[in-house]
Amino acid sequence: MVNKDPEGRAMQFDPAYLKIAPGDSVKFVATDKGHNSETILGMVPEGAETWKGKINEEIVVAFDVEGIYGYKCSPHFALGMVGIIQVGDSTENVDSAETVKLPGKAKPRMAELVAQVGDGATAPAD
Ligand SMILES: [Cu+2]
After folding, report:
1. pLDDT value at 104 more than 90
2. CA of 22 relative to ligand 1 center, distance in Å
3. Do 60 and 27 form a contact (C-beta atoms < 8 A)?
4. 10: domain CATH number?
5. pLDDT > 70: what percent of the chain?
6. Containing domain of residue 86, as a range?
7. Phi and psi (nearest 5°) for 96?
8. Which pLDDT belongs to residue 126?
9. Cis (ω within 30 of 0) for the bond into 15?
10. Chain centre distance of CA 95
11. Residue 121 lies in a domain
12. Domain Blue (type 1) copper spans what residues (predicted)?
């Protein structure tokens, strides 16, 4: 969770796209202050657990269910502070994840991240 990523984007998760294996855990590190990590509702696989960290809280999230997980920093959601974690090779829920309404810069940023999702997934048409 950083105020500026290596590409110069303000308010980001770095890396914002991550591919892991089922059973892996991810730690959200509070490199800069004022951020959190929280699931975007509608952007997790069916049956998967959601998470919600407090501001400045470093949380460790375990991922067992395969699929696409979209998450945000609550205060900087509309500034495009969002991320995707792909667990395993399943992209089954990417289409439904793409239908979630996102505010401001979160929409184009999420489209960039969805484009990085492997295994035949495609970027949104708009
Ligand atoms: Cu933030």
Report:
1. yes
2. 26
3. yes
4. 2.60.40.420
5. 93
6. 2-114
7. -70, -35
8. 47
9. yes
10. 15
11. no
12. 7-87
Residue 23 has pLDDT above 60, yes or no: yes
What is the mean pLDDT of the segment spanning 4-27? Answer: 97
Q: What is the pLDDT of residue 3?
A: 98
* Structural domains of the chain, count: 1
What's the pLDDT score for residue 96? 85
- Is residue 99 included in any domain, yes or no? yes
Residues with CB under 5 A from ligand 1 (ion): 35, 73, 76, 81
Compute, in angstroms, the gap from residue 120 CA to the centroid of ligand 1.
30
CA 69 / ligand 1 centre spacing (Å)? 17
Task: Report how far ligand 1's centroid is from the alpha carbon of 36 (Å).
Answer: 6
On whether residue 126 sits in a domain, the answer given is no
9 Cα–ligand 1 center, Å: 12
Higher pLDDT, 83 or 97: 83
Residue 122 in any domain: the answer is: no
* CA distance readout (Å), 67 to 2, 21, 74, 104, 105: 25, 10, 22, 25, 24
